[in-house]
Amino acid sequence: MQKLISIIVPMYFEEEVAQECYNCLKSVMLQNNINYEFVFVNDGSTDRTMEILKGISTEDYRAKIVNFSRNFGHQTAVTAGIDFARGDAIIIIDADLQDPPEVIPELIAKWEEGYEVVYAKRKQRNGETWFKLVTAKYFYCFLNYMSDIDIPKDTGDFRLIDRKVADIFKQMTERNRFVRGMMSWIGFRQTYIEYERDQRFAGETKYPLKKMMKFASDGIIAFSTKPLRMVMTLGLISVLISIAVLIYSVIVKIFGQDIQTGWTSLMVAITFFSGMQLLGLGIVGQYIAHIYDESKNRPIYVVKETVNIEEDDVILYKKEKTNIS
Predict the structure, then answer these.
(1) Number of C-alpha atoms within 13 angstroms, CB side, residue 173?
(2) Using one digit for the tens of pLDDT, what is the confidence trace for 209-262?
(3) In whole angstroms, what separates CA 188 from the centre of its chain?
(4) Any idea which architecture 4-129+151-207+300-324 has in CATH?
(5) Which residue, 12, 90, 200, 301, shows the most beta carbons closer than 10 Å to its own?
């Protein structure tokens, strides 16, 4: 029996690309004789995205829809797609067609070689600003330095995961999601294929600078305790400097020399150490905020409706979530 490939496509205000995304994906599936299902996750779009998706699902029973009650974010939409996907392998791809569907057969070929995770690595990023290119480059360098796991550079969520990886992923219940980090943490045999990233087909990016900064913060806090250790180290250094200054002052006083006091140096010292304290409190506060989010034990997302998803699959999903919680 031919294995089933689930294609997960998060959608957020994608009325300009939804139909073309479906057309391109279906064309690749048919040309390569792939047994497929599409899981479109409407992440609270209030434009015509849901209307277009319903039209698609009416014509193609393999086009399934998970419709959120509001916007929960891209990483949560990916999570929902994995929750509802039934495939032996699952592929995550964005709707904007920057990640070309033509790469999908290459991902499947690597999976058939025995790899459980196959991620797509960008060797060229067309249509992106120099600011995005520079920040992306240094983000991954900084993230890998700060993180306790190795997260591949120049990769996004565009990847294939095996069913066994998906089942483990579904057991991970943290609310602040960083999918590519979670996949790296799970492990198994992982490899990559290289591709050139295209320009966005239409519309605007849904990841402005503010969202990118939160995304980076979530990734670092979720997979590293180094910021806490750095704060502790800086605190220790500050204490040692203070002790050294105290010893110096005592020695100078013993030998009868006057200690010159200066307003500028005093203010610099006070400002510096006060800033370090506030920075430390801020970092600790971020970790506490994440702990607080987890302690509320709210569902990761709320589904308003599903389309072309069998009742048995919905019941199974609910049972799995009940068992996990």
Answers:
(1) 15
(2) 566 666 666 666 666 666 767 776 777 777 677 667 667 767 776 766 665 565
(3) 19
(4) Alpha-Beta Complex (3.90)
(5) 90
311-318: Cβ within 8 A, 24+ apart: 313/84, 313/86, 317/83, 317/84
- CA distance readout (Å), 53 to 22, 74, 94, 96: 9, 17, 15, 15
Contacts of 118 (CB under 8 A, 6+ apart): 107, 110, 111, 159, 160, 190, 191, 192, 193
Report CA-CA distances (Å) from 258 to 164, 255, 261, 270: 73, 9, 9, 22
CB 188 within 8 A of CB 162: yes
What lies within 8 Å, CB to CB, of 251 at 6+ separation is none
- Tokens 């392998």 map to which residue? 89
| Alpha-carbon separation of residue 250 from 29, 104, 268 (angstroms) | 79, 71, 22
Alpha-carbon distance of 229 to 32, in angstroms, equals 50
Quote the CA–CA distance of 117 and 149 in Å, as a whole number: 16
Structure tokens given for 175: 């609310």
- Helix ranges restricted to H, the chain: 18-31, 49-59, 74-84, 104-112, 130-146, 163-169, 179-186, 209-223, 226-254, 263-295, 311-324
Q: Number of C-alpha atoms within 13 angstroms, CB side, residue 151?
A: 27
Encoded amino acid at 221, one letter: I
In the chain, where the domains are located: 4-129+151-207+300-324, 226-295
Classified as helix, coil or strand, 171 is coil
